[in-house]
Amino acid sequence: MEGPESIVEFKFSDADPRLGMIPRSVQQIFRCIKSLEPRGWKYKVEALFLEIYNERIRDLLNSDSQNGNMKCEIIKSAAKGNDCLISNVTPSVVTCTEEVYELLRKARINRAVAATKCNEYSSRSHYVFQMKIYGENSITSEKCEGTLNLIDLAGSERVKESGSAGERLTEAKAINKSLSNLGNVIMSLSRKDSHIPYRDSKLTHLLANSLGGNSKTLMFVNINPDSENLNETINSLRFATKVNQCNIGTAQKRVK
User: Fold this and answer.
1) Which residues contact 115 (CB under 8 A, 6 or more apart)?
2) In order of start, what are the domains of the chain with their CATH numbers?
3) What residue stretches are annotated with the Kinesin motor domain (predicted)?
4) Are the beta carbons of 83 and 77 closer than 8 angstroms?
5) Per-residue confidence of the chain (256 residues) as pLDDT tens digits?
């Protein structure tokens, strides 16, 4: 499935084997919510769809944010274990998978993509899906909350090969810089440095609590088997090795 037309026309189905990480994760969450109802648990679920484009955070569900009329800024640090708050962003309350799928369709249409020599539909931004879950037990009065972040990182780009110029070149520089900063944060975490440079990019600042807080973090690295992409494949695997060597500790269950 490629290109904006197929994105618009694509119909999500829970049984479709082509479903990606976001639909599958959402399915699992709502299945768990349903299974916990007999134990007295009730949940409120909120969803956000953001992109980080040229070091600017944009709400993919808000036209004012997309056209630059409204700035979205990180207004609360995650350094002490609290999730970041983002100004001028309103989460959507969702109660089922179908409601998330509808938001996903809208968000994918608005995401920044453009053609380069390497990719006809190249992502020009990092794509962030965030789901906040608030639970309360009517029997025990326990409360809990958690955040799921699923990130589709734009790929690093060799400008000479992609032929990027003008606006595409500006985008490529921003993508490469933020990915480099992500690597620096991961290396600092693996060395257990006293200072972790989360604030060097919007991406790492936004994900500080996921990278170094009370969390579980997974990274999937996609590589191309073609011999002409050997250098990119090697660089991707080297980056994956660095990530694999990073230990951020053990996540703790937080129930009030």
Assistant:
1) 121, 122
2) 1-152 (3.40.850.10), 162-255 (1.20.58.980)
3) 1-246
4) no
5) 233 333 333 455 666 777 788 889 999 999 999 999 999 999 999 999 999 888 889 898 887 655 666 788 888 654 445 567 888 888 999 999 999 999 988 888 887 654 444 444 456 788 899 999 999 999 999 999 989 999 988 877 665 565 555 676 788 788 888 888 988 898 888 888 899 999 999 999 988 888 876 788 888 888 878 888 788 788 888 888 888 877 766 666 666 6
